[in-house]
């Protein structure tokens, strides 16, 4: 219960009609009865407060207390109460009138006499009138008190509370003219009710009897007290209980008060029924939760119902079950709990029987009839279970107590694994008793099924017990019919045995197993001396016939029992070894094989098992040998064991002489193979067929009936054979000091052993030929691959191969197959390499196919698709502007066996990408003043447009579009090409006409521009006010160069320390060196003294900087114009080990170029889609983007260059070796890079008075 219940609630009244006075009032101003005398449940009040009628718990449970014991003795009338008690209501009124009138008259007379005037008389009348009124009031006010005393004395004077009658209470009220509206009378009613309720409720340590609710309700009705007043008394009793809890100091006392309070809640709830929810505010007054109230009701209802069940025995009937149901509803117990309680009660009744039965069975002094007594207890359980089962099917079962049905031990004392053996013991006892008469009755089967369910045994457990007991009874019955001769005299042994099984309800299959066991025991007795004589055979035959044992079962028994004896003899013979297989061993084997009357197949099976185990031991040792020679020696020992021991053993089992040669059966397929040319062509195969002289020299052949065919896989057996074959070919190799070895050649007798090994391994002739041929083919292939190293088959090499074929003895067709395989593989590898390096184009592919080369099977599908892609890319970059749809969409895919739809998709993707890239390249070549390059790039763009027609293209600098259009117009193109180009570039007709008239002025406009070098011109910002355009916005620099604010910060700090001395050009040169060092790169000496330029060249920046689309020759030419060698160009390109590039500049490479690692391309594509995202950035060096090292060159070697111009440095060109050197030797790269940076820093510097020292690097002074 909630601990907060220990705190007494604040202001609450025991009765709504009661108003307790404040302590400051005087007794004279209040009625005499100022408060309730509320009794408390017996044995729960302290000694000082215990009421006189309290009795011991034993007395209260046995008898009902009398009224005096509960309410105390009669009360006395005091003061004027005896007078009032004598007056009837009319007389009281008259008396009151008389008193008042007399007082008035007397007062008037006295006042008149003393005052002598009327006013004095009236004053005296008023004074004495008031006194008379007070006296009259006192008489009437005492009436309720007198009525209360009368009520108390009436109730206390009754023989018992049950004798109180409502009519008598009403008569008392009527006599005194009072009602429940009178406080004193109502207080007495409440007090009487409280005393009675307290006496009825048991103390915390006692249980409810079950009649408390009816008793209280009956008394409440007799008193006529209202439910709200009665409920207030129950709440007041609760308060008293809680006050008592506070006074109780010990744990047991506190627990007792809790239980008393729970009983109060339960009884009160039943007394007031549905109205208890609002009449009994337990939750508000005592802070009791709804759950705690439910628990109190549940626990007490369970206690009452359990008490009711305690008197229920095994003689259950309909009337009892109905009364239990009524009690359940009366106690407000749920169906679920009622069911659980009844189930528990039934289980306990059954457990009593089980305990008695177990005590009998486990008793050391158990008598012969003990089992019968235990079975009687079990029969009581079954009878009780049958009764409950029948009642559960009764038509009126809905009116019965919940839980009626079969008995179960679940949840009880015997529902545990520890008790399972005890339950099995009971079940076994019942089964034994059921079969005690030699047969199993039907009713016993039903009883056993019910008992199994009651005891909770599983089907398998119960069946195992029944089988065990029944088996013993069956064997006993068999013994009886054997001895009596009944079975032998039966016309049909099978029918007799079947009838016996039916009587016992015994499974015939299990009976057969018992028959087999009997036969086996008999057989073991007969072979105790190591053999079976005729008498033994006859006895066994009789048992077999009598018990109807199948021949198959007999054979199995003989194979098992006799076989174990024979197996021992075989193992002894094998253990004798090669030298110990003498006449005694042979005699023992023959005796065991024939004396035990085993079939030849059974004997051979047993011998085979033992022999094969020895064979496998030899094989195991052979496999674990250090070298081939030792492995072959172990195999040779196995061959000797087979010849000298196993062969003799097989002969003894068969009863033959091992000296008599036997003709081995030769299969037709083997003979055919012997006659085949293939057999004759293999020299090693011919040797394993010994001639007559060698056969006579080697002695008798070994047996081939016991083999390892089923113990080892075909591969393992062929490997063992191959090991010995190599031993025969190479001889015995002996290693001597200093790394030398001696080879002892073997004669052809080893091949005879090889033939015998093949028999032991169970190899067929076909498998043997396969081993010899594969070995010869392996030797031929090894030497042929050396001869055909380059894949070329010349006449001299053909002769060489023919001689090799004869030496190894390989048949011609197999030799030709090997030769073709080698040449085809070499050619395919060469072709794939040529395609991968770009040395094989579609024209050469067609020539090879015309020559009969099967390229479709030599070149993988992915490689053919790459070749198609590369071919189309070459068409789009040929510079001719031509695009033949039939050639691209039909002929080339057909020649390369590429899916036409997939080919069309590749063409469209390439065309879209190359179209924009061609425009970028044309503008770049324009800036380099490369007229022919511009024309070629525009032709490529037109070819792409012809494949996939495009919309008008856009460019940031429209003037450059006009320039490249003018250059193309001067190249005498076809009118339709020029017209299409005008549309693609968005050139209006007027601009087109003007451009055509300009002549060659486009490329010569900047011829006289100043040459710029390392002068910080790139730092100058554009100035719209002076119409100045710097180099930052030039094509190669726009959105690419970054970090200008770093230079600004450095310049600001330098100027603050040393103004007007250090140029921006020197700051830029030093910063470049220090940045490389900070990233882990090399250092170099930077020469200082440069001055800053006063201008910049937008045009030079566009033409003199390398384009990411340039090829190798263009890069070499561009750097050569500035005085750099190809080696220096490669070294300076190594700066791409850091930095990033825009998707726009490498999109074509990662989607269309073939000289790129596929995984690398796929990873970059995730950040650079085929359309859009042109400004997305990717690292130029994906391996170590923030470290200055040689990873850039390693990436190039692995085809992981991000830009087209990057990969051009390693693409089969003149600088491949330089890239390889740098990728393998970072020190060399660092040295060359530093030298090249020094040279670049000295490129056309301004010195002396040229230029200036800028104050702000972004603008001139």
Describe this structure in words.
This protein is mostly helical. Helix content is 64%, strand content 1%. Among the domains are: 70-146; 343-544, no CATH class; 861-998, no CATH class; 1017-1241, Peroxidase, domain 2 (Orthogonal Bundle). The protein has 57 helices and 4 strands. The protein has a two-stranded antiparallel ribbon with strand order 1-2. Helix 32 crosses helix 34 (765-787).
In the CATH scheme, the class of the domain at 1017-1241 would be: Mainly Alpha
What is the CATH homology-level superfamily of the domain at 1017-1241? Peroxidase, domain 2
How large is the radius of gyration? 61 Å
Q: Which residues form runs of ≥5 with pLDDT under 50?
A: 1-63, 661-679, 1001-1011
CATH third-tier fold name of the domain at 1017-1241 = Peroxidase, domain 2
* Class of secondary structure makeup: mainly alpha
Please work out how many helical segments DSSP would assign.
Answer: 57
InterPro entries: Haem_peroxidase (IPR002016), Haem_peroxidase_sf (IPR010255), Peroxidase_pln (IPR000823), Secretory_peroxidase (IPR033905), TIC110 (IPR031610)
Biased composition (Low complexity): 51-68
Enzyme class: oxidoreductase
Transmembrane segments: 93-112, 119-139
